[in-house]
Amino acid sequence: MASADSRRALVTGRGIPLCEDDVDTDRIIPARYMKGVSFEGLGEHAFHDARRNPAGTLIDHPFNDKRFAGASILVVNRNFGCGSSREHAPQALARAGITALVGESFAEIFAGNCVTLGMVAARVSAADAKALQALVQKDPTTSIEIDLGKREVRAAGKAYALSLPESQLQALVTGTWDSTGALLANEALIAKTAASLPYMGWKTAG
Amino acid sequence: MSRNLFDKVWESHRVGALPTGQDQLFIGLHLIHEVTSPQAFGMIAERGMKVLYPERSFATADHIVPTTSRKRPFEDPEAEAMLVELERNVKLHGISFFDFASGRQGVVHVVGPELGLTQPGMTIACGDSHTATHGAFGAIAFGIGTSQVRDVLATQTLALDRPRVRKIDVRGSLGKGVGAKDLILYIMAELGVEGGLGYAYEYSGEAVTSLSMEGRMTLCNMSIEGGARSGYVSPDATTYDYLKGRPYSPGAADYDRAVAWWQSLASGPDASFDDEKVIDADVIEPMVTWGINPGQGLGVGARMPRLADLPAERREGARKAYEYMGLAEGAPIAGTKIDVAFIGSCTNGRIEDLRAAAAIARGRKVATGIRALVVPGSMQVDAAARAEGLDRLFSEAGFEYREPGCSMCLAMNPDKLRGREVSASSSNRNFIGRQGSPTGRTLLMSPTMVAAAALAGEVVDSRSF
Ligand code: SF4
């Protein structure tokens, strides 16, 4: 299902820094906003509680900061997206205008969920993540380029090495991150594997 | 050197390699709940696809279910709409649904095992990170996102990178009054919340094999809290005995054949692993978390770490945690006042958990002003608890004994913390806002420790009861 539109070899945008380790998916999208049967409208609730004080007033938070309005590359630190498997988290970010993430590390399910949406979640070193955050904090107009082909992030004339699990990189670069088609193409092999599994034929105790 | 269980099971379910270099893996059991499935059903409808193996998927409702009255329609129209959507989808695709009328509804990770759906040697997926629970049976079980739920529905397979396998060898034995929850909180504290990234965990050693199936489920359940997407225990006699005669277990005609296959999958003593960590069970105390991630925990007799004593990379997180929790570095965790006590969830809402908590609560009273909830993990757990009189015992002690569901574990139903309340909770996550109040605070601990905290009104060593 690859198409020119689905390729993610080069993603460009302004950065928005979120300086914190272990940002969990309950922070990204509180559970109460998952009460629905679609992903629509999640964008406005991204970081809902983190952006507000207990009285509900907006506080100092990058997603409230006008300087970062329209920024599309979220720059994070270690273990971003830990916690639940909710795809609502990357969905909320995507709907809030985020097209890619750069950070020291990502929780596994979260990173996988990003790829299934065609969102890049690229890893850089701890120091480089901090350097990029400092850069966009200093100058929010800085343009960031995530170049998966060259495996580097470029900003303000500097290049930072990035890494991504090879399969994710391939899927994003070639635009084959929507896996359903490729999986279903092997229907005969699926049936063969199923037939080889002992438990498929067992009768239950009932 | 021989292959470990993970490698054997992965190999037997491998359909082939994909162009991206990932493996295509057949999923033997797919579990469904109301929060992460509607969008996936929507996606396959949009693409005009069908569910390829509807008989391999099983659904129940847990996250949004109220625990006071289950009268339909629910009071909350959004919750009602989610349940209606699930009912519509399972009917449309011919998927088994454990609803209220079946007497089998409950938290998805409690229901699968107790019905015998969860079996050794299977690959199990569910749109829920605590799917790791099912690894207790020697299955490869892991949480997936909604687009992957779509893939399982449409193809019964997933595109996956094969993780490395780390053996967590738990030597020695757990002391009296110390259980599986304490063990896993201790492992989290030792290895960190991101220590398991890229790994599946095999838990082994005497302290693990001597656990009941319930204990093994508690242990595997929280693997994800350490960054490992799945965790498992090799099957043994405890596993086979547990499965015998359950509704979806192999029946008499196939049972012996099943056990022989299961035995052949277990990791042998010479099995090889990509990595190994040794944990000493003898030193573990009942554990309590003091922070805002499950790795920020310590023994109930200990003092909370001083920032200066922590590794540099954990200091900032700990500072934020103390600030949020209103706790002081260097202070003892015992004696921390609580407002709410919650016994339940897929980590600790099974009958054994309720029994252990009841043994503490028996003949005693919940401290004045404490709101204490007992929420059985499933209708079957509830039935067993009632048969033993545990519902009455808890009520007499001042606990509210509720209907089964996820409840205050994530508070998508009306069970929520209010304001800055502090909750002693037998669940699995102490993230900011997790229990329904954006400023609520959670102390994770075992169900016995929660019961003890409810009686004392503060964190206390349950071994003193
Ligand atoms: S009990 Fe809690 S962790 Fe378990 S499935 Fe329900 S919400 Fe998730």
Keywords:
heterodimer; A: 206 residues; alpha/beta; Aconitase, domain 4; seven-stranded mixed beta sheet; 7 strands; B: 465 residues; Aconitase, domain 3; Aconitase, Domain 2; 3 domains; five-stranded parallel beta sheet; 16 helices; globular; binds iron/sulfur cluster
Describe the 3D structure.
The complex is a heterodimer of chains A (206) and B (465). Chain A has one domain (4-175): Aconitase, domain 4 (Alpha-Beta Barrel). Chain A has helices spanning 25-28, 88-95, 108-116, 126-138, 166-174, 180-184, 187-196; strands at 10-17, 73-75, 100-103, 120-123, 143-147, 152-155, 158-161. Chain A is globular, with a radius of gyration of 19 Å. Chain A is α/β, with parallel strands linked by helices and 206 residues long. Chain A is 28% helix and 16% strand. Chain B has 465 residues and is an alpha/beta fold. Helices cover 33% and strands 17% of the residues of chain B. Chain B has a 5-stranded parallel beta sheet, with helices on both faces. In chain B, helix 6 (180-191) links the parallel strand 9 and strand 10 (199-204). In chain B, helix 2 packs across helix 5 (146-155) and helix 13 (351-361) runs parallel beside helix 16. The model of chain B has no long low-confidence stretch (mean pLDDT 97). The chains are: A alpha/beta (206), B alpha/beta (465). At the A-B interface, helix 3, helix 5, helix 6 and helix 7 of A face strand 1, helix 2, helix 3, helix 5 and strand 8 of B. The structure holds iron/sulfur cluster (SF4). Residues 62-63, 107, 109, 128, 130, 345-346, 406, 409-410, 427-428 of chain B line the site of iron/sulfur cluster.
